[in-house]
Design brief:
Layout (H helix, E strand, L loop, with lengths): L13 H13 L4 H20 L19 H12 L1
Helix pairs in contact: 1-2
């Protein structure tokens, strides 16, 4: 379940809002979900084209390490306590 924590208000002409409402009704969504999904699709398309703003900040590293087992976890926890 998504919890909505912020509000974004936009202004648009009444005729455009009416058009959005009609299209949203045709696809079975209310206006707010229609607008959210449209913005998500636009952001996704832009990120696919130019990359995510997170690309410079995130990365991955390849390291050979044993898979975590309960024994390994217990051993590590004992080391932290002692």
């Amino acid at each position: 379940m998504n919890v909505m924590s912020d509000i974004l208000t936009i202004r648009l002409p009444a005729s455009e809002k009416g058009a959005w409402k009609r299209v949203a009704a045709e696809v079975g969504e209310d206006l707010s979900e229609f607008a959210r999904s449209a913005v998500r699709a636009r952001v996704k398309a832009l990120q696919a084209k130019s990359g995510s703003p997170w690309d410079d900040l995130l990365g991955s590293i390849s390291v050979h390490a044993p898979a975590a087992t309960n024994r390994n976890v217990r051993k590590a926890m004992r080391r932290k306590r002692g």
